[in-house]
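To close the chapter, one final illustration. This time we ask the reader to focus less on the individual chains and more on the assembly as a whole: which components sit near each other, and how the overall shape emerges from the parts.
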Amino acid sequence: MRVSGSRRAVLVVALAVIVSGFAYLTYGGVGDNLVYFLTPAELLAKGSDGFDRPVRLGGMVVPNSVQWHADQLDLRFRLTDGTQSVLVHSHGAPPQMFRGNIGVVVEGKYDRSGVFESHNLMVKHSNEYHPPKPGEKASDMYKTLVREGGS
Amino acid sequence: MNNALGTSALRVALGMALAAIGLAVWGVRRRDEDFVRAAYAAVYANAVLISLAVAAMLTALLTHDFSVKYVAQVGSRATPTLYTIASLWGALEGSILFWGWVLSLYAAAVIYANRKRAGALVPYAAATLMGIAVFFGILLVGPASPFGLVSPIPADGPGPNPLLQNHPLMAVHPPLLYLGYVGMSVPFAFAIGAMLSGELEDDAWITFSRRWTIVAWGFLSAAIIAGMWWSYEVLGWGGYWAWDPVENASFMPWLTATAFLHSVMLQQRRGMLKLWNMCLVVSTFVLTILGTFLTRSGILSSVHAFTQGPIGYYFLGFIALVLLISLVLIAGQSGRLRASGSLDAAVSRESVFLLNNLLFAAFTFTVVLGTLFPLVAEALRGVKVSVGAPFFNRMTLPMGMALIFLAGVGPALPWKRATRAELRSQLMPPAIALVVVLALSLALGVREPYAVLTFAFAAFALVANGREFWSGTRARMRSHGEAAPIALARLIGGNRHRYGGYVAHIGIITVVMGIAASTTFKSENEATLKPGGSLVVRGITVRLDRVWGQEQQQRFVVGADVTLLEHGRAIGTLTPRQNFYPTSEQPVPTPSVRSRADADIYINLMAFDERGASATLRILIEPLVSWIWLGGLIVMFGAGIASWPTRRRAGAPADVRAPARAPRPSPAPHGASATATHAAPSTDLSGAD
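The assembled structure is written out below.
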């Protein structure tokens, strides 16, 4: 648009201020909201820097570490990367396939008492397709439901 | 047979695209009409040949011809027919084929509609479209070739990705998305065509670009809403938008296209923002290619990413090429892209559009930054990070609310300059609505500032846009003595762009209200129940009746029968399920939803006992979710009104593009003349506004 010289200068300066302020805000906003993807060893290596910030923690569920109280929907288990492990606590039912030795990713924060408080638990599945082994077929595993349901 | 047909059709199609480019450029340089006509014939041939390849692929899929590579990857005899058809776009190679097909059809339609237009604009636009077709053609005969002989021929295939065969919306969302994404190539082609031909001064290119952007934008809007719906119905977490990179990929070009749909009016009416509009058209196209790169290259792990392969490098190269060519052309033409008009007053419709564009630009920047940051961080620093939803929400919520507010201010303000009296009379009714809703929300105990403001601004914008229909119809009834429905229809028909735009505004406002209500007033509960046991969420009793299993053709289903009771009376049953597909260890959650105008009751089966002794249910009550889907329909309806082709009658209102004569659109309509100011003086579809 055509505006006189001095007004144009004012406009340009105003725009520059707005844009740089916005860019600064945005950049800071990203920095504060980065969610790191870590393994238990990497999380523990951060020491106190690892506390109370959003993290995605990935690893395997330690066999026989799973404590599930269905009535309170309370789940505790240890997550390991093979070297170190972290105690994870979450509220809510785990996915149907959740069990020991399965790869999972939990989202949440590691609190100062040394428990990872998860608000989201995802089972990591490999994209590689393999035909289900005999015991893994849903129609075998849940056969009893068909007979009782009869639908 | 299918292989041979498909492969050769795609190869010849690529040849046709190359030929079209050469013929078009040669024809324009030599001013030889015959070459241009031959180029157009090659464009049509390209469309026919790719259609043949698609037909061969569909035949192969439907007849389970596992000798075709793609069918062996995604086909299965047990898959129901609907999902077999949907698997055409359900994996990498098929989706590229589908993309190329949609592009070839768009190109043929655009060229056919404008085949008689003289000048170099259309031939260069054809060459640009075919340039894009060459890129996809190379992918189709090379790294993403869907055809190819599989030997030995397998007896059966694994079937599509379980997530993609679990809901009928899979047959809706992807085609809409392609129609939207690929449609953005057309305005881009006219932009490049205008710069190559130098036909920038007459506004033909901007008229074409606007027209086709409306079409593509309508499809893209519908696709985004359908994608949200799919996510809501299939992923089982009760939400519909997570700022996931693949969602952002569809959203980024939508933002720039929406900005363009507003700023283009400043160019058409006032000769402003020519350079900016050029940049918006180019950015929109580049963002569609970037989105395809993000979702198809395997750089992000998601349901949309199919394979790790070299295809990502092709896309990066193509993006670089497009940016380079566009920037060189824009730099070369910058003298002609200077504004010829100027802003008259700070309080006018023009300044609302400027503010609107500033906000859309900032919005786009935020989403692009948040989406690309993790990729850059991983490439440069080797750390795996993701940008959390709080970042997006905090940055975009204020901008989104300001945009909703402006959607109400814009229609109320006149072009050029608003007087105090006009401001008062136009803004008073919406302002009253704003205050009433504000007071009402606070009185009803809503305390979240964003929710309160969103409802207040939505009421403001709704009244402002609705008023345009009301006052326009009333004025027509008085001046023409027409009955209300006829007056309304003629009002809209007389200026489709304007009223289609207002309808789209109303649709977007509906979507925003649905989002605000469903996120703010969501109630949620989860419990493990025994058959006969129940759980109460916000006055609704959810009773588990039984857990059952069923073997189906392509999967095994575990379901929970649930009865809903309100005030002790049964109001319906729901059956959330988990579907186990043989190709996946993980079941696909299949929540069951009861939709009402006031709220959705959403139940997901989280876990179950193998003997049916119990089931863990997650129950959500989400107010107004269905308004989001309804709003999507309204938006599409609005885009349909705005883009419906009209044959201009002889003696239609003369072109009133000159800014000095541009009439101020007052609430009193003057038939077609109010804002239909940029009709090319032709009688075919090309210039119809």
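Residues 649-689 of chain B have pLDDT under 50 and may be disordered. Chain B has four domains: 1-160, 174-338+349-400, 401-520+630-687, 525-626. With these observations in hand, you are ready for the problems at the end of the chapter.
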